[in-house]
């Protein structure tokens, strides 16, 4: 097992940093589910941390002493099962037994074990330090995340991912690129469970660390080389009356505004994607106008491609709508979408229209884009471009027009 000077190859969270001293009252405490019961006994940020560690590619465990109450042990074991992590009994009188148990559970650990413990259990620090574990102490009042020759100190559970990142960068040096990422929890979980955000350095020299608006942003960004964000998750509102070529038309959350200011003052920071690249794809009218350029492409040996025919409307009852549809070569059925493409709650509120009179009953937000419905056999190909590399994913979609018309009884 590597010594303290190496990267973090395993994390053990002592029960003292996870369990609350008394049952906490949560808004959903009336629920009878096991998960709600667990939350009632856990520190507010405990599940936040466990979600981050679950898919970090760093073995993670929970430890507790032999004298812990049975109901608390039961909760810890249930949570360990929920997050697919280990549970260890840590007896201060027989530390060697615990370390052997950990080594058996986590064979070939690629680094040192970081042990996070409350500052109320000082008696165990020296014994664990002697066996090569990196002791990290939580709840040191009046101190910030820092370290000395043998111990690390943090104030909040949320600081641990960044602390692991700092330790690993210090151990590895410039041979690793650190990517800080921020997006809504459901999106992060979807990526993480597929192994996209490992905290442990990969063979390709990449290491990921979650950023959070709940902590000061500047110290976090100083630890990363690249910022990967989903800024559209942080949009509060979009003003379509202004040009979407400027960030002035978009109101972001306070945290995203802080990140935006930091990026503007640190132009050497690599950002994926720069915010000005995002603005055009927020507006479906702008997207359609960009797709018009496809008709001008003359690629030898390839079939000509075009974007779907479209029409922008500000009122579904506007005079001359039928004539406008005809002039833009829009036949029915057509698909109707809000002009705002993403970032707000109703941006994906859409409708498929089979008859002209159906436009009068639509509740799709205005302004809207009426778009040619193109048969695609219930399959969409979604393309992603990273530098010179192009990737694609196959997505399920709506049926062809004839099937839709049969289903609608038209």
What does this structure look like?
- The protein contains 14 helices and 19 strands.
- Helices cover 28% and strands 22% of the residues.
- Mean pLDDT is 87; it is low at 26-34.
- It folds into three domains: 8-172, HAD superfamily/HAD-like (Rossmann fold), CATH 3.40.50; 176-282, Rossmann fold (3-Layer(aba) Sandwich), CATH 3.40.50; 285-374, Dna Ligase, domain 1.
- By secondary structure, it is an alpha/beta fold.
- It has a seven-stranded mixed β-sheet, sandwiched between helices.
Number of domains: 3
Spatial strand arrangement across the major sheet: 3-2-1-4-5-7-6
Separation of the first and last Cα atoms: 70 Å
Mean pLDDT across all amino acids: 87
Low-confidence stretches: 26-34
CATH domain class of the largest domain: Alpha Beta
Strand fraction equals: 15-25%
**Structure classification:** alpha/beta
Please bin the fraction of helical residues.
25-40%
Shape: elongated
**Total number of helices:** 14
- Largest sheet features: 7 strands, mixed
CATH topology of the largest domain, by name, is: Rossmann fold
CATH architecture of the largest domain: 3-Layer(aba) Sandwich
The tally of beta strands, per DSSP, is: 19
Cα-atom radius of gyration: 27 Å
Question: What descriptors fit this protein?
Answer:
3 domains; 14 helices; alpha/beta; Rossmann fold; 410 residues; 7-stranded mixed sheet; Dna Ligase, domain 1; 19 strands; 4-stranded parallel sheet
């Amino acid at each position: 097992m590597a010594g303290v000077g190496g990267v973090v190859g395993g994390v053990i969270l002592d029960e003292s940093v996870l369990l609350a001293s008394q049952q906490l009252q949560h808004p959903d405490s009336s629920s009878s589910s096991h998960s709600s019961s667990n939350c009632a006994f856990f520190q507010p940020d405990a599940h936040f941390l466990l979600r981050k560690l679950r898919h970090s590619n760093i073995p993670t465990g929970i430890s507790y002493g032999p004298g812990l109450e049975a109901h608390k042990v039961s909760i810890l074991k249930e949570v360990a099962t929920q997050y697919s992590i280990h549970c260890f009994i840590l007896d201060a009188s027989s530390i060697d037994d615990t370390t052997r148990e950990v080594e058996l559970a986590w064979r070939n650990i690629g680094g040192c074990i970081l042990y996070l413990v409350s500052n109320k259990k000082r008696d165990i620090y020296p014994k664990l330090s002697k066996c090569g574990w990196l002791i990290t102490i939580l709840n040191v009042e009046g101190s910030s995340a820092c370290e000395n020759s043998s111990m690390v100190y943090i104030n909040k559970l949320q600081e641990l991912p960044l602390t692991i990142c700092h330790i690993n960068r210090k151990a590895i040096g410039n041979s690793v690129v650190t990517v800080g990422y921020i997006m809504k929890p459901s999106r992060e979980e979807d990526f993480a469970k597929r192994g996209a955000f490992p905290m442990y350095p990969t063979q390709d020299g990449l290491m990921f660390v979650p950023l959070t608006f709940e902590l000061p942003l500047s110290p976090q960004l100083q630890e990363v080389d690249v910022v990967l964000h989903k800024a559209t998750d942080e949009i509060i509102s979009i003003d379509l009356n202004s040009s979407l070529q400027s960030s002035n038309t978009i109101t972001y959350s306070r945290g995203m505004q802080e990140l935006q200011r930091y990026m503007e003052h640190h132009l050497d920071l690599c950002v994926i994607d720069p915010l000005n690249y995002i603005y055009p794809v927020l507006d479906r009218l702008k997207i359609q106008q960009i797709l018009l350029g496809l008709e001008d492409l003359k690629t030898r040996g390839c079939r000509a491609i075009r974007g779907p025919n479209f029409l922008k409307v500000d009122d579904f009852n506007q005079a001359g709508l039928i004539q406008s549809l005809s002039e833009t070569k829009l036949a029915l059925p057509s698909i109707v979408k809000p002009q705002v493409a993403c970032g707000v709650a109703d941006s994906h509120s859409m409708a498929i229209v089979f008859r002209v009179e159906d436009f009068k009953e639509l509740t799709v937000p205005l302004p809207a884009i009426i778009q040619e419905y193109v048969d695609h056999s219930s399959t969409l190909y979604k393309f992603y471009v990273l530098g010179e590399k192009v990737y694609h994913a196959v997505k399920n979609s709506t049926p062809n027009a004839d099937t839709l018309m049969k289903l609608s009884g038209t």
